[in-house]
Amino acid sequence: MTCVVHARGLRYSYPGHHEALRGIDLRIVHGERVAVLGPNGAGKTTFMMHLNGLMMGDGELEVAGLTVAKGTLAQLRARVGVVFQDPDDQLFMPTVREDVAFGPLNMGLDRDAVHERVEDALGKVRMLHVIDRAPYQLSMGERRRVAIATVLAMDPSLLVLDEPSANLDPRARRELLEVLETIQRTMLVTTHDLPLAAELCERAVILAAGRIVGDGPCHEILADPELLAAHDLELPAGFDLAAIERRSRPRAAV
Amino acid sequence: MSGLCNHSLELTGLAGDRASAVHRLDPRAKIIGLLSVTIVAVSAPLELWPVYVACAAVLVAVAAGARVRPRDLWRRVRVVLPFVLVLGALVPFVRKGGASYDIGPLAVHEAGLAVCAAVSAKAIIGTLSAALLGTTTTFPQVLRGFEAMHVPRLFVLIAAFMYRYLFVIVEEVGRMRAALVSRGYRPRHALQGGPMGRMATAMFLRTYSRGERVYHAMLARGYNGTMPQLVPLTLRRADILFVTGVLALILSVRIVGAAA
To answer: Pairing with B148, which of A26, A96, A202, A247 sits 20 to 30 Å away (CA)?
Structure first.
């Protein structure tokens, strides 16, 4: 099975010597959906920023078949799609169409192919009807889905989502979840929305103070209240893990 | 999303029939055509009224072609025009020459009146042509026009990001104000303005870090220093005809008028 993410001893310190990542070892294979759980300040976003070379720490990191280094950045960014937490940061073009086209155009595709990809990606997140609207005219849930389309249009082999359910009302969250469940791609989701992780991902990793402190099948990790409590995580009161059923399975490993 | 959604149609700035021939013109054609109307009107000698009439005729034709209602135009020009006209209205009192008429303690001079009329005509033509560009062309289209006309990319980018994030920033300022007010902040004089200053600082820092995050998001999707264009602008026959028609009319009136 091919590896999509392979980190060995990954470390990163912010200027001012705050150590955000203290030796991360992680393997993610093709087709897996992995939730990266952890309290605020655990290093989730820092780790995510390493996956497409926005930050570079010490240690070894291979993503989508490439060693993360200065020379591979352009290729790396075409293969790793990162959806940031605040869709307003991600949607910077005047219209949705231009925004979704931004990535594919940067990849050097010709215009016909770009148009096709834009419509295809927006269709996948069920947002084709807003193609000519401006991002500020959309609701938060709609912006989030368009933000996902902007990366899907680049056809990445790894999809990284940072807190996808943050600031969404229950209905927008449900719609987002339904969209994500239909996307057949290796996925890494950083979140502290544990029910979302339970529904979407089959594997969970707990990140605390820059280290991986738990790794296993999602339902097992979430069924361990002591492990969760030790790292400032908890399921909503009365939440029944058994009632959650993941409705789609990621594509079988290639 | 809060109130902004309600204004969204207005925010595109467009008015009139969006499918009209004027709306469909290439943004460059409209920028050049309407800008030259402004330049010719502003640079014409004060007494050359045929030029103003020709410019006004072009603007009326454009407005009619785009089916922009006078009310929509007025709503746009009323922001700027009254100030300019008030300034113009002061001229007859200051500029001396020709016959003079007494109005109470003040005297109005004929030469001043002529200047006032010409300056007002220039102001109205300039404002109207800018407003017409705005009602027939979306802001992103205007920017693309400028970019295609080789206005330095940095300026275009700055304007584009300002347009995109203005609403985000306005909302943020609104939230910060609400937070100040709900903790009982009610400044009564200038010395109590300190919190406003700190709010501005916080706003600056937030905008700065937002800029950083947006840049990261751009890099993450392969940004390499140039903004890619999805649909390249193409000049069609209608665009060429529009520009040459407008230029031919106003320049000929201008040149013939000056020679006469």
So the answer is: A96
